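Exercise: predict the fold of this chain.
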Amino acid sequence: MKRMPLVLLLLACTSSRTAMVERPDQDQLARARAALDAGRFDEAADQFAAFLRQYPRSDLADEAMYRRGQALSRAGKLQEAQAQLQELLEQRPTSRFKEPAALELQLVQAKLSKNQEAAQALQKSVDQQREREKAEGMPRGESLRAAAQAFGAGGPGAPFESALEEAPAQDVARLVADLDKKSPAWPVAALKLARIQLHAGDRTHAAELAGEILSVQPQGPFADGARSVQQTVQGAQAVKSNLVGIVLPLTGDL
């Protein structure tokens, strides 16, 4: 079986949003997780609760329960956090979130009992667990989407830019196709994709995407990057049009 060239794969990803198969429960969970990562704990807790009401049988429900417990804990709503985490551990004893939920619950209970020494020790373990989850817990592509949503919601740009640098070209293309152009994350991702297309030799689509970036954001750092892509394409076309060929007779005799 022949492998699809990178350029064709990128075009397939960006040509139409309808080509992408999306799960609405995944999208809703990603939005709630983005709010949690951005530090909007009350909003995140409400979004996770809404997810559980709408998708109680989803295979992502146990994660929503765990994340809601996290959000409530970090919002200082310890009684509610305790109830949510206990519910997860009782109703879903085989969940892959069992161990981190138990650790989070221990921290909540230490805070409720005002055991400062235990709370401080557990807080360190919980913080380490949260960092591991950020690094390893999300499927490929979903972490990029979550980073884009966090940035679009007002979060810092560095984590999103780092996620873009590490993401495969296909994931960047899917993100560009899926994001609303009004999102602050769109020109960042689109410029990254245009540079990928340019590097892959797909100058036509790189120039077209650069033009789209300029139509959305005619000024600023991403506009400068888009103009640079266009100038590179124009320079390559000028060199090609100025090539001089020498025609030799078929006999090879000069």
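Check your answer against the key: Residues 147 and 185 are 9 Å apart (CA to CA).
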